[in-house]
Amino acid sequence: FSGYDCDSDPCQNGGICRISDGGGYRCDCPKGTDGTNCELDSFNECDSNPCKHADATCQDKLGDYACYCPPKHTGKSCEVYDRNSPGGLGKPVLSHKETSIYYAKDFEMLREQCAKNNCQAKRGNFKCDEECNTYACDFDGNDCSLGINPWANCTAPIRCWEVFMDGNCNEECYNPQCLFDGRDCEKTLQLCNPIYDAYCQKHYANGHCDYGCNNAEC
Ligand SMILES: [Ca+2]
Ligand SMILES: [Ca+2]
Ligand SMILES: [Ca+2]
Q1: Which ligand is nearest to the CA of 144?
Q2: What is the CATH number of the domain that holds 64?
């Protein structure tokens, strides 16, 4: 007998497949799930009232719970007060370090996508290639964003373009919409990143001051 039964990956929801002595397989199911393939919800995670706000709504999920928070509250259990939060599904709030790691990974992934989509060859050809129109791909060499404010979707309370890549970490701007504060938060300032170099060249003397380019490195 060879482990074929597990080859089809029968265990769902993170269950671990093991070959049974008598043939066949069995799934070691994560807490809160049950059934032959861990497909059943065996536990109501809302029973312990995990949502920390009286007006929150708890939803039982497979091996988990979700909290729907009233406005101004967020976090997995609505435990975080955030006056900018519209409410709704509470999402875990990461520490700054965790956020950093998360975005750095995200950025690496996006960079790989750029390479896969051959964005280097498509940039700056005056045709908008949507698959390259990301921060990590230098917005397709700005083919898609000419005349558009790259910070248009940035809702930070401060003017992120004024502190973009200024060497100081402005956490309010450290998100994709605000172009990650020019990665100020990730490491100490290095030589002008080729991405910004390209961005700055493209925007050089284009009629408005690009604060991100207004520094010694660029
Ligand atoms: Ca459940
Ligand atoms: Ca292009
Ligand atoms: Ca900054």
Answers
A1: 2
A2: 2.10.25.10
